[in-house]
Amino acid sequence: MNYFFGIKSQEFSSELQIPLFQNTNKKHCNLMLYKAKVDNNEWKIEKINTQKKNRDFYFLKSEDISNSTIFFLASSDEVNNKIYKLKNFNKFTETTPAYRANLKLILKNGGFSSYQSEYPFTMMEKKGSILSSVNLLANKEADKNFIFIKNIFAEPIVENFNAYLVNIKKRKIEEKFIIKTNYTNMIELNKSLIKPEIYLITKKYLGIPMYVSTKNKHVSFEHTHPPHEYILSKNKFSKIAELKKEINEIIV
């Protein structure tokens, strides 16, 4: 199952388009869209108004989206108004090819770019660390570069944790940031740190890093893949484990 999210900041707004059909099946589902937000150590659940849908999609505008709100498809008998822990409610979004919702990121007084907005439930029950190469997706030639880090944790926890930009050649922390769980966090990236030796890493919680570059009111929007997907050798998992171990020794 996938959950969905948007982005909101002083520079950006966003919109979501969530399909009510599977890409290999012409049959439309009768599931409803819900939003969830942590409130007093519980997940507060609300049904999205059906006026925001047609036969094929739910359409969420900027006013429906906040950095602390997430969305999911479920039937009414699967959901209560308050839930202590988010669940894998159904398998509707588990498809091959992959089910995709569209996240449209809009630069205020500028252009927009679109990418996917799925956060897999398999990530939501785990703790761990993000490891992401800054140089692969950030752009030195851009006016500004941002990293958005979305964390969704199944339990209704709002807790600070650390993110670091680490130089593995110099074995030093270049910058440290405090971000939080169950939130869409934003980091503005210093262009001097866009180098092959600089890695983004988090400690304690997982998340999805998304890289956004702006230039002349245009927007580039990409989100990263797990680092082992960039390595073709059979020992790719052990290589990533070694790199994480090396970086963790730097941020201790």
SSE inventory with pairings:
Blueprint: E1 2-5, E2 12-19, E3 21-22, E4 25-28, E5 32-39, E6 42-47, E7 57-60, E8 70-74, E9 82-83, E10 102-107, E11 112-116, E12 119-120, H1 121-124, E13 127-128, E14 131-133, H2 134-137, E15 144-151, E16 160-167, E17 172-180, E18 183-189, E19 198-205, E20 208-215, E21 218-223, H3 236-251
Antiparallel strand pairs: 1-8, 1-12, 2-7, 2-10, 3-4, 5-6, 5-8, 6-9, 10-11, 13-19, 14-19, 15-18, 15-20, 16-17, 16-19, 20-21
Could you characterize the architecture of this molecule?
This protein is mainly beta. It folds into 2 domains: 2-121, no CATH class; 128-212 and 227-251, Jelly Rolls. 10% of the residues lie in helices and 46% in strands. The protein has 3 helices and 21 strands. The chain has helices at residues 121-124, 134-137, 236-251; strands at residues 2-5, 12-19, 21-22, 25-28, 32-39, 42-47, 57-60, 70-74, 82-83, 102-107, 112-116, 119-120, 127-128, 131-133, 144-151, 160-167, 172-180, 183-189, 198-205, 208-215, 218-223. The strands form 5 sheets. It has a 6-stranded antiparallel β-sheet with strand order 9-6-5-8-1-12. Strand 3 and strand 4 (25-28) form a beta hairpin. The model has no long low-confidence stretch (mean pLDDT 91).
> Could you estimate the helical fraction of the residues in percent?
under 10%
Major beta-sheet overview: 6 strands, antiparallel
Enumerate the strands of the largest sheet in spatial order, edge to edge or round the barrel: 9-6-5-8-1-12
Estimate nothing, just give the exact number of structural domains. 2
Strand content: over 45%
Mean of all residue-level pLDDT scores: 91
- Total number of helices: 3
User: Which radius of gyration do the C-alpha atoms yield?
Assistant: 19 Å
> So what's the overall shape?
globular
**Count of extended strands:** 21
> Are there runs of 5+ residues with pLDDT below 50, and where?
none
Distance between the termini: 34 Å
- Compressed to H and E, one letter per element, the order equals EEEEEEEEEEEEHEEHEEEEEEEH
